[in-house]
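User: Modeling request: complex.
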Amino acid sequence: MERFDVIVVGAGPAGATAGRALAQAGLNVLVVERAATPGAKNVSGGLLYSRAVAEVYPEFWKHAPIERAIAAHQIVMLGEHTSTALDFRSAQAATPPFNAFSVLRAKLDPWLATQAEEAGASLISGVNVDALLVENGRVVGIQAGPDQIGADVVVVAEGTAGLLLKQAGLRGPHNPHDVSLGVKEVIALPPDVIEERFQCDAETGAAYTLVGSTGGVEGGGFIYTNKASLSVGVVVKIDSLYASGRHPHEILDAFKAHPLVQRLVRGGEVVEYSAQTVHRGGFHLATQLVGDGYVVAGSAARLLVNNVLTLRGMDFAITSAVEAAQAILQARFAGSYTAATLGNYVERLKATSIYQDWRTFKDAYGLMENPRLFSLYPDLAGEVLERLLTADTKPGSKALGALSEALKGKASWLTLSQDMLQIARGMVL
Amino acid sequence: MNIVALVKYSRDVTEIKVDPATSELRTAGVPERVGLIDKNVVEAAVRLKEATGAGLKVIALAPATARDSFKDVLAMGVDEVVLIEDPFDGEAEAGIVVRLLEAAIRKLDPVDVVLCGFASDDGYSFQVGPRLAERLRRPLLAYARGITPEGGGLRVEQNLDDRMQTVTAPLPALVSIDEEAFPPRRTTLMDALKAKKKPVNVWGIETELGLSRADLESSARIADTRLTGVVVRRQQRVLKGQDLGAMADELIDALEQAGVLKGAA
Ligand SMILES: Cc1cc2nc3c(=O)[nH]c(=O)nc-3n(C[C@H](O)[C@H](O)[C@H](O)COP(=O)(O)OP(=O)(O)OC[C@H]3O[C@@H](n4cnc5c(N)ncnc54)[C@H](O)[C@@H]3O)c2cc1C
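Assistant: Request completed. Predicted assembly structure:
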């Protein structure tokens, strides 16, 4: 049987980074990716948070295919005919070390894979890994078509679905409740139109996080500016989507038809449509990261920080891959690749800032289960402001009075205060 | 025995869009790859290699940056790729392409069998096979659906649209592969790993082929000026029948009305 020191399954951000780190340390590494070219089928909204990534790929913005530095964030609540926004702009985010970049996976992933290849990893694309080879509970290699290839350790970086782990009996099935579906379009627009519409310059761009207008299905929308296109999409809970009986693209179409969104995307040509599941990223859903002969990195290990304001999967994937690689090197030094020797990965990961952020925002998960956040409150915010800003011919009232009128028949004060407390727990306190 | 398969590095035709206003084809930014038809050419060549133990090289006209695009072809069983660095960015007329290919094949001599597609994915001019056979003074066995080595030569089944014709010819010969014949094999991980060690050699037209660009250009007789799509309108009808049987009846009626079906009961 052909052998490598390490086999990495998947060349997304996690797999490519693990491959690079291990090859740099002189190991004989094979990275296997099922897409014909890395990234061809991978979906992200497309904000790569840069600080943690720059620790692994120093000043990557000078070399990697990034689109725009995100220096403007809009957090918007979409009511049926209103929109209420918080507009944040930072000049600091437009200069090194930046905060986030918009990226397109079809460009970013091949670049990451090339970094792994240049470090000496063997990358094979267009080949699906069919199974993990397991002997006496220990992962000893992979099966791909007719070929079996052995390795001291397998890095499982297969993304959200986690089919290989499930099939090998190393992990239980997903609960549909914990998974969302993201549907996304890339809409081409000339750079000057983008810069005018989103009030940015040639290098910088804006990110919109939008709540509401997803047809009452729990989830949210995003609009990110690329160089000459927008990434526009919605991420909705799969069980709610299913219960609503609606097609994912209907939700996206309805979202795009909201007057605010419509104005931002108008005139653009849809050049790409994609859909992918994304784990909802609850801290309480953390899974086993190591076992005998294998480690799990990136979204295959459900590593995702999602606190409504930011969705961080790619940088978490990269960070986890580096820690996994370090643990593998330590285990190699010890000459044994058991769950115990590889367990150092878990300790290392727990010490990272992103893992700690994950824990910090653990209550945001419950928040995102609250249907009123997605249907009632965006309308309510709009209605209250409408009442306050409209100079009507009938007498009006102060904010609290306006809120009380807007609330009538929709929710009680008690519900409202409970929800506010939940929001506070998730994001503020 | 030595085999050469000609592979076109062409635009991904599935990615070409038509400008709705002018019907012009938008070719800018369309990704390039080894043509689909050409994968079948490679399959035919690999099967012949397996049947005869011959050596097998691929010649492709492509930009030098396309080097990495031949991994699949090498994984299928090709020994080596010769990449002729295309000075014309894929825009050369067939007459020039044929001269470049001829020069490369002569440089690789002795070459017993040259295999190519009946046409290319994107250009679809149907010219390269016949014109190259003429320049190389080889018999052309066109539209092959079956190729068998026989008595030091080849037996080829040719698809002539309304009939199949089986012909034999001595070597050296040139064979063009029929549409959809020889569907390419799936390669395995081990194939791909072996392919990593196989060479892609880049040849310059002046340095390796001894041709001059100016001379080639002056031989061009045809200039492309405009490329537009031909609009084909498809009828779309939704069958509204209650059950499958009713829908089938409706479908038959519709096909009869359109003159596609005749005499259905
Ligand atoms: C709609 C949407 C929006 C998102 N937005 C953001 C965002 O803005 N910012 C952010 O940081 N994150 C975002 N994420 C999350 C982010 O995409 C993931 O967390 C990240 O891609 C995880 O990286 P990974 O390398 O672990 O997995 P992936 O990127 O999924 O890579 C896994 C790779 O493994 C390959 N593979 C899988 N199975 C096999 C197999 N059996 N054999 C061979 N290869 C295999 C796949 O083809 C793929 O290339 C978003 C996700 C979605 C769905």
